[in-house]
Amino acid sequence: MALDPETFDALIDTVRRFVAERLRPLEGAVEEADAIPAEVIAEMRDMGLFGLSIAEEYGGLGLTMAEEARVAIELGRTTPAFRSSFGTNVGIGSQGLVMAGNDAQKAAWLPGIASGEIITSFALTEPDVGSDSGAVKTRAVKDGNIYRLSGTKRFITNADKADLFTVMARTGEEVGGRGVSAFLVPRDLPGLSIGEPEKKMGQKGAKVADVIFDDVPVPAANRLGQEGEGFKIAMRVLDRGRLHISAVCVGVAERLIADCVAYASERKQFGKAIAEHQLIQAMIADSKTEALAARALVLETATAKDAGKDVVMESAAAKYFASEMVGRVADRAVQIFGGAGYISDYGIERLYRDVRLFRIYEGTSQIQQLIIARETIKRGG
Question: Which residues are annotated as catalytic?
């Protein structure tokens, strides 16, 4: 259920001010320390950001997809690591439970996820399994009233601090996605361990790491849905996640465009502000046009999803276009800033590195192309 307009406008205003006044001044420090201050995480919890997409009955804000997208756009106007700190609770780390969990599972976990007391993570990718997500090798073998999980997951966001993992593991002998099931796996189960966080190109402060399962005993009651439904659950989760990431891309692009306009209006060359030079204006125009197009596609698709329409193709198109778009905008921003864009003091090179990941996670651009083509052909055009 959507919030009333006045309440939602107040939420957007609060998030906008929080980003501008609290988060943006900390961007350099987060990059340097590769960590988000604990007091900022506590403030995010108090604002309800960990429960944006979780129903009010479980303590969340219960936003619609369109509302969540608008909040994500606002959060995109600062370094993506801030959003990532609670992003798994809002998206891929919780939505399998929201979509496929039974009443007992939801009652046990969702209130803590919504409050931020429980941090979630989504464990699908493996050392040999990336885009071919139906080929997972992690196994879950039934043993009485438990499943024994064995395998390794790789590049798992928030694994370093997650309390609950949604894990995709093979329970059957069928090849492909039909043999995959989904499980809720608490971090404190014996045999579960976390690798050292990876060193990354960008998005410092947001950690990814291996998750290793060594004969981990998972209660059968923690299985999400029926055996063999895990791949379908994962794809539904990723459909929603793609829209959220698309909205973040729009927010980052809008931030970069504003920074470019401010810099170009002050920086002078050949006796006038570079914003008056037509080739600079062309780059600003291209960036603004693409950002507006991405915003429109994201919000239109989110509204259609809220109306119950099939948006598999549209979500993939939004993710594909928005993530590629923000990469182009970031590249133009470096060009507009010139040498200053290559220097860390201005933050442009940091965002240039940060946005590169958007074309990879929640499905690479190439996977989105395949989905778009498949769905377009299925629909007849």
Answer: 362
